[in-house]
Every structure is written in C-alpha cells, then in structure tokens.
Design a protein that fits this description.
single chain; mainly alpha; 5 helices; elongated
C-alpha cells in the first residue's frame, strides 16, 4: 500500500494531475541522489491544501481498487485459465496467451480492416 500511496501522492503533488488543485508542485523535496532517497520535504502549502491532497490520494487509491476489482471479476474465467497454465508450465509465451484469452478487440478489428484506396 505504501507504493500505491507514494504514487498517488506524486501524481497529485509532483505531476499536477488533480481535479481540485491547480497544476503545480506541492512540497519541495531535498534528495540525496547518491543514496536514492529523500532527506526531507518542505511543505509550501496550507493545511487546507494538505486536506485536499489527502482526499485526492484517498480517491485515487479507492478508484484504483475498484478498477482492479472490476477487472478481476469481469475476467475471472480468463485469469483462471492463465493461472492453471502457469501452475502447470511456469511460463506463458505470447501465442499461448492469445490461445487462452484471445486477442485484444482493437487488434482483431485492425487485422480485419483493409486500407482505404
């Protein structure tokens, strides 16, 4: 959950992808590049903005969980086929994968379409 939270926080505070905040960087990090970690973060925003950031993080994570749950429930049969194959063979090549689950709808449409003259 830590990685999901860190990613959601970066999406909002570093990449400006929020519906409720203007695109800018929130918080400034001083990094020790050679150690690959942050030493501290300086807040340059108010408590009110911090609350909005927290709500946005909660929203992104809960939406991601809903999306993952829907994908798993909608494709449960396909996922079970993949699991069974992997338990028996340990690997799965692309052609085997296509046989198990089929091609993407977009790809099969493209293959059936002829170029316009």
């Amino acid at each position: 959950m830590k990685k999901a939270t860190d990613l959601a926080r970066n999406i909002i505070t570093r990449y400006g992808m929020s519906e409720h905040l203007v695109p800018r960087i929130y918080g400034e990090k001083e990094e020790l590049v050679f150690l690959g970690r942050d030493i501290r973060e300086q807040r340059n925003y108010s408590e009110k903005v911090a609350e909005v950031i927290d709500k946005e993080i909660d929203y992104l994570i809960s939406e991601a969980i809903k999306t993952a749950t829907n994908i798993i429930s909608n494709d449960k049969v396909r996922l079970e086929k993949i699991v069974k194959h992997l338990l028996e063979h340990e690997t799965l090549e692309q052609d085997e994968f296509v046989k198990l689950v089929g091609e993407k709808k977009e790809q099969s449409k493209e293959k059936n379409t002829e170029p316009t003259k």
